[in-house]
Amino acid sequence: MSTKLRKNVVTASCEKKMMTGSSMLVEALKEEAVEIIFGYPGGAILPTYDEIYKDGIRHILARHEQGAIHAAEGYARVSGKPGVVVVTSGPGATNVVTGIADAMMDSLPLVVFSGQVATTVIGTDAFQESDVIGITMPITKHNYQVRDVNELPRIIKEAFHIATTGRPGPVLIDLPKDVSLETGLFDYSKEVNLPGYQPTIMPNKLQIRKLVEAVSSAKKPVILAGAGVLHAQGSESLIEYVEQQQIPVASTLLGLGAMPGTHELFLGMAGMHGTYAANMAIYQSDLLISIGSRFDDRVTGNLKKFAPNARIAHIDIDPAEIGKNIETQIPIVADAKEALKELIAQNGLRGQNSVWNEDLKQLKQEYPLWYTEDPAVIKPQQLIERIYEKTNGEAIVTTDVGQHQMWAAQFFKFNKPNRWVTSGGLGTMGFGFPAAIGAQLAEPNTPVIAIMGDAGFQMTLQELSLLQEMNLPVKLVIVNNASLGMVRQWQQLFFEERYSNSLFPVQPNFVKLAEAYDIKGMRVDNVTDLDRAVEEMLNHDGPVLVDFRVAEKENVYPMVAPGAGLHEMIGVKPE
Ligand SMILES: Cc1ncc(C[n+]2csc(CCOP(=O)(O)OP(=O)(O)O)c2C)c(N)n1
């Protein structure tokens, strides 16, 4: 369901009843058609957990609050529905801070309930009190502390509305224990009324006209597609528009899958570890149309050297993004899909640009992503390629953060939307594993593969216990280079090979670790075993963890070094 359309799923039969705050919370979740919640109990939120027990609403008990919130993010990313998280006060709430910041950066709809100490002791440094409103103010789309139980239904309804409409994001509701025990009137029938929050969905026709004209006079147009296309369920419209106008498309990291990875007009990912063709297309373009992307520095490289000859058109549902990093000549505040539909309807004539498309096609052929095979050791890129081939690309892939994330982005071609779950904005190590659990819960019948570094996996590996309990068939791939690979790469390239605290010569026995949780564990060291091992992993009926020992000093290329422009990539071809 489109996040922007689900705002009023509330049933008309909604009854007004007297009940406690904690009953209201559970009742409101039902009204919002929430099927699954992720969380961890504790003192201040116990009344709510009691209601969860009585009501039987499906609750996923992670083994750490960070696991719960990343699982909720994975669920939200794949399903398009809001992820709901329930945690206790103090450490429970502070343990979800990273996940909230992550969801804020990547525009994921979450509604997070945190327990709070009673209103009578707020501000006294009471046991397990933390100022979660202050802490999360800058990393939530909105947050509330409930002081009157009668306000709770309105607050919850607003929270779901705010989280899922416009540019999605996390909303936190801090619920003091006494408020959750008080009785009030549950009335969920009132429409949300927020005069100060009215996201612009439909594009301004005049601005669309300007863009149509710009496209028809451009010789070198290119589209930069971001996650906003996916959040708007706008992938089909994007394909239709670019096929109509024959405009080449580059993607951001989070926009992968918005345009099929194998499409003729797709140039690949742009930015620091993007393809040469995508980056050169942006550098040479005379019209750059960004759709649902925010010109993150990992995409633009040095701003002074970014798209120097291009007029910039920027379609974004969040007006604050337009002109933030890049001066924009054609701003269009709108939902990406609605803007694309309008552009398609205008059916403008694109000028004589076939030379441009041919040039880019040639660049794509001449400078493909590359790596060199070595019979003595598994190359990480080779591992990702095998997984892609052996799944026919029919899988949801989650990742952690680091080199493996970039290789997954480069070598796994996403031909469908919402199959790629990664932490882009915040770059949160420890994200990939729990996010895979949430993704598998959202899509029980699609293979889910978590591609992780040996270090990132160890940041949230406690969720092996949850995986064991639920017996979800998630495939855990450790791309084990015995180091903080991405850190090591930067130290090699920019710190004269001073590997300060980035090498892990001592490794845990990951097979035994998996077995401790009754999960199948495998270790693969040799290239000759690679194909068979990937098949065995994919064919295994339940969860499985595979420790793939890969080349330890492999670097991610090509690369835009810090301070360089997109056209100054290093490592575009093997030496
Ligand atoms: C929570 C957190 N701490 C630190 C970092 C900085 N960081 C980025 S990549 C990276 C190395 C990751 O190592 P690993 O998980 O083994 O993946 P690899 O790069 O080797 O594929 C580090 C430490 C981060 N992104 N997140």
What does this structure look like?
By secondary structure, the chain is an alpha/beta fold. The strands form 4 sheets. It has a 6-stranded parallel β-sheet, sandwiched between helices. Helix 3 (65-79) crosses helix 18 (432-442) and helix 9 (205-217) packs across helix 14 (336-346). The protein is globular. The model is unreliable at 1-12 (pLDDT under 50). Bound molecules: thiamine diphosphate (TPP). Residues 400-404, 427-429, 453-456, 479, 481, 483-487 line the site of thiamine diphosphate (TPP).
Radius of gyration: 24 Å
- The 3D shape can be described as globular
Structural class estimated from helices and strands: alpha/beta
What separation lies between the terminal Cα atoms? 48 Å
Total DSSP helices: 23
Number of strands: 20
Helix content: 25-40%
- Portion in beta strands: 15-25%
Characterize the largest beta sheet: strand count, sense, and whether it forms a barrel.
6 strands, parallel
Main-sheet strand order equals 3-2-4-5-7-6
Provide the residue-averaged pLDDT: 96
**Ligand roster:** thiamine diphosphate
Enumerate the spans where pLDDT stays under 50 for 5 or more consecutive residues: 1-12
